[in-house]
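Incident log, structure service

09:12 report received: a user says their structure output differs between two submissions of the same chain.
09:20 pulled the input from the user's history:
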Amino acid sequence: MTPDPIERVRLFMQTCGETRTSWPYPVTVMRVIAEVAKRGTVQVRFLRARLGVDKGYLSRILNRLETDGIVVRQQSTVDKRALLVRSTPRCDQLGSAYRACSERPIRVLLAALDTVGQRRLLEAIDMVCRASPT
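09:34 re-ran on a clean worker, output below:
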């Protein structure tokens, strides 16, 4: 293993990154689809915060997904200021497939570790997340 910390982090991130390139949309769009499918209906502001996607970019993503019949946008009946995104059957199908595919390598990694190794990995991930500026 290389002693260079930058290279080690780069290799780690490549290991954890998306490997499938045959999705009908880019990875960020697939993440939006998966999140909407998981929740059924979600506020746009929640999606922005959860996925760290810029307001303008998310708006363009949702425009495309709505045009393609993947999601439906509607105003909240509870809070008129809130815009909701609702999944469609196609959204549910794509989101489920994306989650299953993205979870597979994680499950393989976790299965290769004993309980102590899993705990250490998760603690390291938590430490990185706390140190991250975003």
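09:41 both user submissions now match this output. Likely a transient worker issue. Closing.
09:42 reviewer note: The domain at 5-131 is CATH 1.10.10.10 (Arc Repressor Mutant, subunit A). DSSP finds six helices and three strands in the chain.
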